[in-house]
């Protein structure tokens, strides 16, 4: 899949100190092949790879992120951009009912979507009405009625036996019905053909002109691969649309349609359907789709790891301590350090998180061996000294310094730092904040 291909590409960059132009070229070539194999449209592939190349070459070499991480970050950001950046929400009419018209090929998933969308709207507090304007197929009206029933959403359908149906008239009647019955959103289901043809397009245009939709949603089967682009262009030029709904994402392992349609048509993907059930439907989130395509398991597991380091038990003990009147002791200090160490190499961890490049200076100044030194000093203290640090006078300091092989002034520094941590804890206690990680060497 596209995810696997991209992940494999990023792997080859791991461990590289910096990227040469040849590295970048090889990577971009691989990404290009992976995208093409995933049926991403050529213009999209071109723009995408050009942007990656430019940014990867221009990236500062001396950042906290290593080259592989930098490339992942760049690719992720470009993916989100190609997918449309931010989620585009439905626009509602100032004077209800808001009219949403569905257009797309037969089998794209319009009728199924009408039910899903209706239910979604109802959950949002709207009162939707589905209008059956597909009079092309004998069973289409019935299908929408069943879908509406399942979704618990009202359906307006033409009277049976009224001769050959006129979808434009039904659309008009449906809106009239919504107005008189106080439905505030109307979803107009329309007919489609297996292929794009002039008659179908004309029918959609006639319905459009009759009802003047607030939103025309183009419903696109993500599984049709390369054909997606041509179909989307035909509908854009024929009927026009405001947004796209991608369906059957559950069956599309490649992601080509998702990545192409926005760029090719200039219209955002607004919703995504990923199964036949009513709940297999969601607002489309470019960021989520990008991370699904990128499959950034590494990064996610790293964050998870960091969260786990503060295990529940420890957190509870800390919370109890926090709630009590007891003072923050050197033992607590040690425990906090241990918790931080539990996360693995802190520097590495911070370095892998996106957006940490600016923290480079702090990271470089940060020395994990400082933890060892603090631990050694605290371990040279007696239990009483750890609990009541204020008893640590000059002679005790000399003894502790000798015990851990450090200078007295190093011990003084550490105690000073601890004193600040203690103060901070006291302040947080009285302020009711959460325990942080005070006194971290930096
Ligand atoms: P229409 O002709 O555009 O109205 O398409 P339909 O709503 O009748 O859907 C055509 C077929 O695709 C039906 O069998 C649906 O159950 C199925 N379908 C619709 N949406 C999805 C989806 O997101 N995933 C899957 N797997 N099937 C879908
Ligand atoms: Mg249908």
UniProtKB/TrEMBL annotation:
<comment type="subunit">
    <text>Part of the signal recognition particle protein translocation system, which is composed of SRP and FtsY.</text>
</comment>
<keyword id="KW-0687">Ribonucleoprotein</keyword>
<feature type="domain" description="SRP54-type proteins GTP-binding">
    <location>
        <begin position="268"/>
        <end position="281"/>
    </location>
</feature>
<comment type="function">
    <text>Involved in targeting and insertion of nascent membrane proteins into the cytoplasmic membrane. Binds to the hydrophobic signal sequence of the ribosome-nascent chain (RNC) as it emerges from the ribosomes. The SRP-RNC complex is then targeted to the cytoplasmic membrane where it interacts with the SRP receptor FtsY.</text>
</comment>
<keyword id="KW-0963">Cytoplasm</keyword>
<keyword id="KW-0733">Signal recognition particle</keyword>
<keyword id="KW-0547">Nucleotide-binding</keyword>
<keyword id="KW-0694">RNA-binding</keyword>
<comment type="similarity">
    <text>Belongs to the GTP-binding SRP family. SRP54 subfamily.</text>
</comment>
<protein>
    <recommendedName>
        <fullName>Signal recognition particle protein</fullName>
        <ecNumber>3.6.5.4</ecNumber>
    </recommendedName>
</protein>
<feature type="binding site">
    <location>
        <begin position="189"/>
        <end position="193"/>
    </location>
    <ligand>
        <name>GTP</name>
    </ligand>
</feature>
<feature type="binding site">
    <location>
        <begin position="247"/>
        <end position="250"/>
    </location>
    <ligand>
        <name>GTP</name>
    </ligand>
</feature>
<feature type="binding site">
    <location>
        <begin position="104"/>
        <end position="111"/>
    </location>
    <ligand>
        <name>GTP</name>
    </ligand>
</feature>
<keyword id="KW-0378">Hydrolase</keyword>
<keyword id="KW-0342">GTP-binding</keyword>
């Amino acid at each position: 899949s596209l995810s696997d291909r991209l992940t494999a590409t990023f792997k080859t960059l791991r461990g590289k100190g910096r990227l040469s132009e040849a590295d970048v070229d090889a990577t971009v070539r691989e990404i290009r092949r992976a995208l093409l194999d995933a049926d991403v449209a050529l213009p999209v592939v071109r723009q995408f790879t050009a942007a990656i190349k430019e940014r990867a070459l221009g990236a500062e070499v001396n950042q906290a992120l290593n080259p592989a991480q930098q490339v992942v970050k760049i690719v992720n950001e470009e993916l989100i951009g190609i997918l449309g950046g931010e989620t585009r929400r439905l626009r509602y009419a100032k004077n209800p009912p808001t009219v949403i018209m569905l257009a797309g090929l037969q089998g794209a998933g319009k009728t199924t979507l009408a039910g899903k969308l209706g239910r979604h709207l109802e959950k949002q507090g709207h009162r939707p009405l589905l209008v059956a304007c597909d009079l092309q197929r004998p069973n289409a009206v019935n299908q929408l009625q069943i879908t509406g029933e399942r979704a618990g959403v009202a359906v307006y359908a033409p009277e049976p036996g009224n001769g050959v149906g006129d979808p434009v008239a039904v659309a008009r009647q449906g809106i009239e019905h919504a107005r008189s019955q106080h439905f505030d959103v109307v979803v107009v289901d329309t007919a489609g053909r297996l292929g794009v043809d002039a008659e179908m397009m004309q029918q959609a245009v006639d319905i459009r002109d009759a009802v003047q939709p607030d939103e025309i949603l183009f419903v696109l089967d993500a599984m049709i691969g390369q054909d997606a682009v041509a179909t989307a262009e035909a509908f854009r030029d024929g009927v026009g649309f405001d947004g796209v709904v991608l369906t059957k994402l559950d069956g599309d392992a490649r992601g080509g349609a998702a990545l192409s349609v926005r760029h090719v048509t200039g219209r955002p993907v607004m919703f995504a359907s990923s199964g036949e059930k009513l709940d297999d439907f969601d607002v489309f989130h470019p960021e989520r789709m990008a991370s699904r395509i990128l499959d950034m398991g590494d990064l996610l597991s790293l964050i998870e790891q960091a969260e786990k380091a503060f295990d529940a038990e420890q957190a509870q003990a800390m919370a109890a301590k926090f709630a009590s009147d007891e003072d923050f002791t050197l033992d607590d200090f040690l425990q906090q350090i241990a918790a931080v160490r539990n996360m693995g190499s802190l520097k590495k961890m911070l370095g892998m998180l996106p957006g940490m490049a600016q923290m480079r200076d702090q990271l470089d100044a940060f020395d994990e061996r400082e933890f060892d030194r603090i631990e050694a000093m605290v371990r040279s203290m007696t239990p009483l000294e750890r609990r009541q640090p204020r008893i640590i006078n000059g002679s005790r300091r000399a003894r502790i310094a000798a015990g851990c092989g450090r200078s007295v002034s190093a011990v003084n520094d550490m105690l000073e730092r601890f004193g600040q941590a203690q103060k901070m804890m006291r302040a947080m206690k009285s302020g009711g904040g959460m325990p942080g990680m005070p006194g971290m060497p930096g």
